[in-house]
Amino acid sequence: MASRFGQFVRNFTLLVTFVVVAACSTPKPSGAAPYAAYVMDARTGETIYAKNADTRLHPASLTKMMTLYIAFEAIERGEISLDTMVKITKNAAAEPPSRLGLKAGQKVALRHLIRAAAIKSANDAATAIGEAIGGSEAEFAQRMNRTAKAIGMKNTTFANANGLTAKGHLSTASDMSTLGRRLFYDFPQYYNIFSRRETDAGLADVANTNRRFLDSYKGADGIKTGFTNPAGFNLTASAERNGVRIIATVFGGTSTAQRNAKMAELLDLGFASVKPGGKAVPPAPPVYEPQAAPEAALVAEAGTEGNRVMGAKTLRVSTVISASPRPRARPGSAPAEAQTLLAAAPAADPGVDPIAEMIAAEVAVAAMQNDIAGALAEAAGTPGVAMAAAPMAQVDDGSVMSLAAAMVTPTPPVPMAKPEHVPTVIHTATPLDGTQMAAIEPVPTAAEVVTRISTSGGRHWGVNIGRFNSRTSAERALMKTMLAESATLNEGLRKVVQKSGGYDANFMGLSQDQADLACRRLQARGTQCFTIGP
């Protein structure tokens, strides 16, 4: 009896040992969501194979493909350059591995951050790229989502630039293949980075996380790996053989080796399914949805920090000017009967045609410099301006057209006086209804001249499409934009203005309606812009 019991104990012990050994030797599932796969003919975008391809799963570091797509887009638009020194924030420096090892406060060239994100899949580098372009991680995530929609990613939502697990940060095998195809066709000049086995990332030399697959599969030249515990082992890969390019994506692999083996099967399936010699049909340009602007909202940001465009803030207010009140007299100014008020002259006669008044304002604007500030500055140093304005107030019939005619009548040249001999005070007033008025007041005895510039019909509005590192780049961007949006910009004057941080590319000489329409259409095409008011 005892011997039988001892034999039972030994058998039970052996069974337990066998189960434990088997469990330890079997690859453990990563806890990933269900497996998904997708294969496409990259030449046409046609689907070859799909399984759970539209199931929303954790993309992990495949996310960085979108971060890099936007970085390449921003470089091409002149928003930032490869040589821009990006200041690392505490948020970026605190990201968990994989990391480049960035420290808060240090400055790193954008080109090195791109290499680290693409090759090493560095989370800190990806976050730094997003913050440099978007201003913050949250703003960059919004741009990622707008871009995803624009390039045809139908089931993807992003919450960060690196792919670490976050609520709502989900994508699909189909969408990631679409993104991989976009990287190849939209930015061929940068695509080669994904095939590098190693590269210099500034702080260190980094090795490609996808080097095993690149070395083992014939024709493979990219694109990106990804791994987190909830996602499993992910990979979007691209390979070309005999003029045929196949792109495939795997979600939920159980290990690097298993994922790579599955990817090889999928690519083999793709090459076996299509014939060489087919015509490539690149994807259409991205179509960006116009951003809804609240009644008073910041619609664009520009400015500079070193070579980097940090942004200008333009406040667009949806209002209609219903009246143009005369500014109140300044304390101590000349008596009302001694003032010459050109802006008030038409208002004194209720029968004056408002269209004629608008034409007169446009004529006045045409006689000035392109920008109002320059005109006022010129008037401040040129006594002839005040002298030429005086006869305009003395037109016998007081009509607007007569005023306009007087404004364009040439006046004899007046010798320039030294500034200290002709003191001039310029006052500007902007009532709440938006009308701008300027007063040029020679001191102390000359009559005060007030000129009202129309803010509705005058062609003194413009559109800024960015700040560039060189005048040539700015001029090239203006010409490219003019050709793409000739319907609204054909009447505009292309103008490059040198600033401390670069060269602003502007279209000037537009009406407010033209500028607003042009900017909305450009934003719909994915071109960042903001209107320039008087």
Features:
single chain; 534 residues; alpha+beta; 5-stranded antiparallel β-sheet; 4-stranded mixed β-sheet; 21% strand; globular
Largest sheet: 5 strands, antiparallel
Structural class: alpha+beta
Strand content: 15-25%
Number of helices: 17
Give the topology, please.
Blueprint lengths: L1 H24 L10 E6 L4 E6 L12 H14 L7 E3 L2 H4 L13 E3 H11 L2 H12 L2 H14 L22 H14 L1 H4 L6 E3 L4 E3 L3 H6 L3 E9 L3 E10 L2 E10 L2 H18 L22 E5 L3 E2 L2 E2 L4 E4 L22 E2 L12 H14 L4 H10 L1 H10 L7 H9 L15 E6 L6 E7 L6 E5 L7 E8 L2 H14 L1 H4 L3 E7 L2 E9 L1 H13 L5 E3 L2
Parallel strand pairs: 14-17
Antiparallel strand pairs: 1-2, 1-9, 3-4, 5-6, 7-8, 8-9, 10-13, 11-12, 15-16, 16-17, 18-20, 18-21, 19-20
Helix pairs in contact: 2-5, 4-5, 5-6, 11-14, 13-14
Explain the overall architecture.
The protein is α+β, with helices and mostly antiparallel strands. Helix content is 37%, strand content 21%. Helix 4 packs across helix 5, helix 5 crosses helix 6 and helix 11 packs parallel to helix 14. 38% of the residues are buried.
Short description:
The protein is of the alpha+beta class.
